[in-house]
Write a structure and sequence with these properties.
This protein is an alpha/beta fold and 325 residues long. Helices cover 54% and strands 8% of the residues. The chain has 15 helices and 5 strands. A 5-stranded parallel beta sheet has the order 2-3-4-1-5, sandwiched between helices. β3, α5 and β4 form a beta-alpha-beta unit. The protein is elongated and about 70 Å long. It binds zinc ion.
């Protein structure tokens, strides 16, 4: 994968390309961002560009070095992922042994640690010594959800590259180019994290149904929507939509967020632009904080269902919150 092929995360991309162009490659990078934000792809693109025989600040995808990276068998690229719940000290030690051999070619040795936030304290300390005295030229790429998720001592020895949480616009563009319906693509990228998860959601045949139920539900008079929710609830329970009630609540939360977007002049970010006119009129019947609180209640109910609270119970709690909100 080349930088060129990665959608979005332009800031991270520019920082890495500049580092390559200027020849100032740090010993360690911390790619900080939520899962689905493309850290793994970016790490691979960075490694491939550093290995590429053709030089320049992006890889060619064709030379032997590029092909080895693409096939996952480059001898100087090591990838570590959590073994069970953690990255363990044995994994770091094995890595250090492998890196102490001379590189096969004379170029870089690169290692990627996925889930760097799960490193045990022993693993972190072992890695730390290594970051302090790297056998040059070694490049470490640590992936973590945030800068705070790793030990400060590790952070201070790494160059931080921040990843924007899911570059939704870019993902949406990809899905629409693939021929997915634009409105469903917009909804999916706001619900799921990452391209693959969003694509799977759009491809589910119940997803369009859920979106319709949410519109129906949302368009009821908000002051009476306890009744309409119960009605929709019955409708949902009659079909296999019950299985996906967490998605329904997630989407309902986005409907309420659209109310806030309408009130704050962010119409172009709406998840339901096809309902924009109606939403813009309705939005002003409540305060922003009231919509936010309803939105949070919907998300809480969705979380409870994911945590195996019976859907009916979670929905009832949601209705109570809505009535009070
Ligand atoms: Zn190449």
């Amino acid at each position: 994968m080349s930088f060129e092929q990665i959608m979005g995360q332009d800031r991270a991309k520019a920082l890495l390309k500049n580092a390559i162009a200027s020849g100032k490659i740090a010993h360690a990078y911390l790619f900080a961002g939520p899962s689905g934000s493309g850290r793994r792809e970016m790490a691979q693109a960075f490694a491939q560009a550093l290995f590429c025989e053709r030089g320049g600040n992006d890889s060619c995808g064709e030379c032997l070095e590029c092909r080895k990276v693409l096939h996952g068998n480059h001898p100087d690229l090591h990838v570590i992922a959590p073994d069970g719940a953690n990255v363990k000290i044995d994994q770091i030690r094995t890595l250090q042994r492998e890196l102490s051999y001379r590189s096969v070619q004379s170029g870089y040795k690169i290692y990627i640690i996925e889930g760097a936030e799960t490193m045990t304290v022993q693993a972190s300390n072992s890695l730390l010594k290594f970051l302090e005295e790297p056998p040059s030229p070694v490049v470490a790429i640590l992936l973590a959800p945030s800068a705070q998720a790793v030990l400060p001592t590790i952070l201070s020895r790494s160059q931080l590259i921040a990843f924007a949480s899911g570059d939704r616009e870019a993902l949406e563009t990809v899905l629409v180019k693939e021929g997915k319906p634009a409105l469903l693509a917009r909804a999916a990228v706001n619900l799921a994290s990452g391209l693959q998860a969003s694509r799977l959601l759009v491809e589910e045949n119940w997803f369009a149904d859920i979106r319709n139920v949410v519109i129906q539900l949302g368009r009821e008079n908000p002051n009476q929507f306890t009744a309409s929710l119960l009605q929709a609830q019955q409708q949902v329970f009659k079909t296999d939509l019950l299985e996906h009630v967490d998605v329904l609540l997630g989407l309902l939360a986005l409907w309420y967020r659209d109310m806030v977007y309408a009130m704050t002049d962010r119409h172009n970010q709406m998840v339901f632009p096809d309902q924009g006119e109606w939403i813009s009129k309705q939005a002003w019947t409540r305060s922003i904080s009231s919509w936010v609180s309803v939105m949070e209640s919907a998300l809480t109910a969705a979380r409870r269902i994911k945590a195996h609270v019976p859907p009916q119970l979670a929905l009832e709690q949601f209705l109570v919150n809505v009535r009070e909100g």
